[in-house]
Amino acid sequence: MYVLVGPLKAIPLNEPLVDLIESLKPEIQDLMENCNSVKTWIQLLIPRIEDGNNFGVSIQEDILGEVTRIEAEAASFLDQISRYFITRGKVVSKVVKYPHIMDYRRTVVELDEKEYISLKLCCCELKNHYVSFI
């Protein structure tokens, strides 16, 4: 898909980046579902406080907090993807409106590069989170 700007000048959709996003989104959603399952499992294993020995319960609550943090971070990854498309759309509309200002064109490239780096970090974080589940 292209946005036409001036005679035969277009701003293409960054296909490799979109392909990466489309392959990464299901992985992020799977992590969120796995976190939800682990949270439920831990919550069901937490015993009622009947005796004075609460050491195991405190460990379970710490793990539960960590899993909740991982789930929230995964949700923020999805939010970041949405913000990328919204921001890119705004910048591309500026390019269409002001085709003579090269800084807007450069901003599109910079935004795509920044998103690629963010997605790369997201992949590393997903791996780290799954390793922490083991």
UniProtKB/TrEMBL annotation:
Record keywords: Proteasome
Signal sequence annotation: none
GO molecular function: endopeptidase activator activity
Pfam families: PA28_C
GO cellular component terms, semicolon-separated: cytoplasm; nucleoplasm; proteasome activator complex
InterPro entries: PA28_C, PA28_C_sf, Proteasome_activ_PA28, Proteasome_activ_sf
Domain of life: Eukaryota
Listed GO biological process terms: regulation of G1/S transition of mitotic cell cycle; regulation of proteasomal protein catabolic process
Family named by the database record: Belongs to the PA28 family.
PANTHER family xrefs: LD45860P, PROTEASOME REGULATOR PA28
Name used for this protein in its record: Proteasome activator complex subunit 3
Organism the protein comes from: Paramuricea clavata (Red gorgonian)
